[in-house]
Amino acid sequence: MALAPGDPAPDFTLPTAHGGTISLSGLRGRKVVVYFYPKANTEACTLEAQDFTRLKGEFDKAGTTVVGISHDPIKAIDRFQSKHGLAVQLASDETLDTLEAYGVWAEKSMYGHTFMGIIRTTVLIGADGRIARIWPKVRVKGHAEDVLAAARDL
């Protein structure tokens, strides 16, 4: 069953870059943007993370925490965050539990090969812990601005 606006957002507790952890339940009372990205240090994923970082102050003013989640090992996420000076929290889901709970771990196809991977998706969660909006199969250009506008309106 796919998640939809109005559904409770699946809780998670994941390791974050540089030794921390983050849990959705620990952010209750704040709006949360969870963006799922396929792989650290790839072109589109870097641009997306930089866009969310550039707008972090605006998300903060809107009472919204931004969290990026990928399947990358935590060491790769540490390097990614340090290399690009990323200010948003980045978390690792090597177990796939959160990726599967949100329905973003799926079969993909590239150059005639199929494989399992992350479908670039963003989820806006209200302060009540319910999903407010989902952006499936995200196109990076202008996306962070769209998400910020939706967070402000929530």
Secondary-structure topology with pairs:
Blueprint (H helix, E strand, L loop, with lengths): L12 E3 L5 E3 L7 E6 L6 H12 L1 H6 L2 E7 L3 H11 L4 E4 L4 H5 L3 E6 L2 E6 L2 E5 L5 E5 L7 H11 L1
Parallel strand pairs: 3-4, 4-5
Antiparallel strand pairs: 1-2, 3-8, 6-7, 8-9
Describe it for me?
This protein is of the alpha/beta class and 154 residues long. It has one domain (32-153): Glutaredoxin (3-Layer(aba) Sandwich), CATH 3.40.30.10. 29% of the residues lie in helices and 29% in strands. It is built from 5 helices and 9 strands. The protein has helices at 43-54, 56-61, 74-84, 97-101, 143-153, and strands spanning 13-15, 21-23, 31-36, 64-70, 89-92, 105-110, 113-118, 121-125, 131-135. It has a 5-stranded mixed sheet. A two-stranded antiparallel ribbon has the order 1-2. Strands 6-7 form a two-stranded antiparallel sheet. Strand 8 and strand 9 form a beta hairpin. It is globular. 34% of the residues are buried.
What structural keywords apply?
154 residues, alpha/beta, Glutaredoxin, two-stranded antiparallel ribbon, five-stranded mixed beta sheet
In brief, what are we looking at here?
This protein is an alpha/beta fold. The protein has helices at residues 43-54, 56-61, 74-84, 97-101, 143-153; strands at 13-15, 21-23, 31-36, 64-70, 89-92, 105-110, 113-118, 121-125, 131-135. The model has no long low-confidence stretch (mean pLDDT 95).
